[in-house]
Amino acid sequence: MDIFRKFSKIAWRPSMQVFRSYCDTPMRNLITFPIAEIQEGKSKYMMAYVYIHGEMGNAKIVIRSNARAKYHLDVYDDLQKEASKKGLCTQGLGGGYMIHDTEKKYMKLYGRSQTLGKADHENAREVLQPRYADHKIDAESGGMEP
């Protein structure tokens, strides 16, 4: 029994070190992934989960907007490309429209995406509030329900 423990410890330690460094990189990428990237003016925006493949429990809600996007899926495709470069996965939560005025420090979230569905604007406001603490953020709750 002593011989078994002696050999198993030697073989086990290096493999744990490799496993630990393998797990650190995706988690580091998830932690450093930007929560919000918002463009000025009227734009299409979408909310999505970004997570490590197979670990949905560590998912992070992110928001992206693009004033030049023709469709909400264009915004989602850009997010997917950005996440896949870091080895992360995405899941769309919905979309809508956003008006962002940096001079007046004002944002308005409203509407819905035909393809992705309606984003939870109240939840989006809570996600944006820490980053844009000096902005007044209005979230339209009704009127565009399916």
Question: Can you describe what's shown?
Answer:
The chain contains three helices and six strands. The chain is of the alpha/beta class and 146 residues long. The chain has a six-stranded mixed sheet with strand order 1-3-2-4-5-6. It starts with a helix and ends in a 7-residue tail after the last strand. The model is unreliable at 10-21 (pLDDT under 50). The radius of gyration is 21 Å and the shape is globular. Substrate binds at residue 44. It holds the Pfam family Ocnus. It comes from Drosophila ananassae. Keywords: Differentiation, Sexual differentiation.
Q: What would the principal axes of the Cα set say about the shape?
A: globular
Give the proportion of residues in helices.
25-40%
Arrangement of strands in the largest sheet:
1-3-2-4-5-6
Spans of at least 5 consecutive residues with low confidence: 10-21
Work out the number of β strands. 6
- SSE class: alpha/beta
**What is the oligomeric state here?**
single chain
**CATH fold-level label:** Pyruvoyl-Dependent Histidine Decarboxylase, Chain B
C-alpha end-to-end distance:
67 Å
Strand content: 25-35%
Report Rg.
21 Å
Averaged pLDDT: 85
CATH-assigned homologous superfamily: Janus/Ocnus
Q: How many distinct helices?
A: 3
* Total domains: 1
**In CATH's first tier, which class applies?**
Alpha Beta
H/E order of the elements? HEEEHEEHE
Summarize the main sheet: 6 strands, mixed
Organism: Drosophila ananassae (Fruit fly)
Binding site for substrate: 44
Function: JanA and janB regulate somatic sex differentiation.
Keywords: Differentiation, Sexual differentiation
